Amino acid sequence: MQVKIKKIGVLTSGGDAPGMNAAIRAVVRGCAFQEIECVGIYRGYQGLIENDFEELNARSVRNIISRGGTFLKSARSKEFQTKEGRRKAYENLINADIDALVVIGGDGTFTGALIFNEEHNFPVIGIPATIDNDINGTDFTIGYDTALNTVVEAIDKIRDTASSHNRLFLIEVMGRDAGDIALNSGIGAGAEEILIPEEDRGIERLVESLKKSRKSGKTSSIIVVAEGDKSGKNIFELAEYIEEHLEDYEIRVSVLGHIQRGGSPSCFDRVLASKLGIGAVDALINGERTIMVGIHHQKVVSVPLEIAIKNGAKYDKNLRRVADITSV
Ligand code: F6P
């Protein structure tokens, strides 16, 4: 069913991700193509509450596809978690004659959109953008591929110094609840060990495995640790524990931090963002609402927001097996 949408608002929210600008650009140009007006909302839901709006057209988003971050800025809004805050946001949308909202972000962003829609029956569409790749119903989230490549490049550099000094490095990567970055970058960079939130295999096992690889002749090792790993120790405590139980190595720690969130988006992320941005505008025109546009087997799919926000830790056990075998 075609619904007459005349003006769409677009915002970015939550942790920023490389490719968000490409997604904004696709939404704005998708609107221009359909002769729909588009309004950029700065600083996520907080800007929605504060009426921080700017009309956007096809020229407004020139030369941003290659830029990391989000020119609309992002923020985590405590006020939007209140009924009063969401009412203010709703009034601002109505006063600006905005008919529908595209929100680009992660599970926190989608949860807010779902509650907002339930309270105000306002059409919202989500575009999954977070480096964590922890959104249900989509094979990939925007920013994940770029972050992976950033992490692998960093680990490769650390591997040079680790092997020069016969050291063991513990490298912390982002991923509060999902080990996608840790597992895939660990395999990609040939890490000896990988610790992820989805499965705690015990630090005793870790030490035994390091002893085994030492005996097999390894003179340096890399352990990739997801920040949400469930060992019960932070990365510095982990280093201490290993030092106490494994005298063979000098140990160093590297926390990659927010470098993983920056950088020019990869081509994969630019194309993904462009497909999902156009997909979001198409979905709104076709009358869809409270869904996320995701990617599945390279096709754009619509996923109900309540499914998208479910914690579906899609831990790939086969990938763990690949990591274990290729790291011996
Ligand atoms: O959700 C994306 C993410 O980068 C997580 O991987 C990380 O734990 C978190 O955001 C960091 O949040 P902040 O930028 O607010 O410190």
Automatic annotation (TrEMBL):
GO MF annotation terms: 6-phosphofructokinase activity; AMP binding; ATP binding; fructose-6-phosphate binding; identical protein binding; metal ion binding; monosaccharide binding
Q: Does the UniProt entry include the keyword Transmembrane helix?
A: no
Q: What class of enzyme is it?
A: transferase
Q: Which reaction does it catalyse?
A: beta-D-fructose 6-phosphate + ATP = beta-D-fructose 1,6-bisphosphate + ADP + H(+)
UniProt keyword Magnesium, yes or no: yes
Pathway(s) this gene product operates in, as recorded in its UniProt entry: Carbohydrate degradation; glycolysis; D-glyceraldehyde 3-phosphate and glycerone phosphate from D-glucose: step 3/4
* Residues that hold substrate according to the record: 130-132, 167, 174-176, 227, 252, 258-261
Cofactors (names):
Mg(2+)
What's in the keyword line of the UniProt record? Allosteric enzyme, ATP-binding, Cytoplasm, Glycolysis, Kinase, Magnesium, Metal-binding, Nucleotide-binding, Transferase
Which parts of the sequence bind Mg(2+)? 107
**First-listed, main subcellular location of the protein, grouped into a coarse class:** cytoplasm
Q: Which residues form the Phosphofructokinase domain?
A: 7-284
Extract the InterPro entries matched here: ATP_PFK, ATP_PFK_prok-type, PFKA_ATP_prok, Phosphofructokinase_CS, Phosphofructokinase_dom, PKF_sf
Q: What's known about how it's activated or inhibited?
A: Allosterically activated by ADP and other diphosphonucleosides, and allosterically inhibited by phosphoenolpyruvate.
GO terms under cellular component: 6-phosphofructokinase complex
What are the recorded Gene Ontology BP terms? canonical glycolysis; fructose 1,6-bisphosphate metabolic process; fructose 6-phosphate metabolic process
Q: Write down the superkingdom of origin.
A: Bacteria
Q: Which PANTHER family match?
A: ATP-DEPENDENT 6-PHOSPHOFRUCTOKINASE, PHOSPHOFRUCTOKINASE
Subunit relationships = Homotetramer.
Its biological purpose is as follows: Catalyzes the phosphorylation of D-fructose 6-phosphate to fructose 1,6-bisphosphate by ATP, the first committing step of glycolysis.
Protein's recorded name: ATP-dependent 6-phosphofructokinase
Gene designation? pfkA
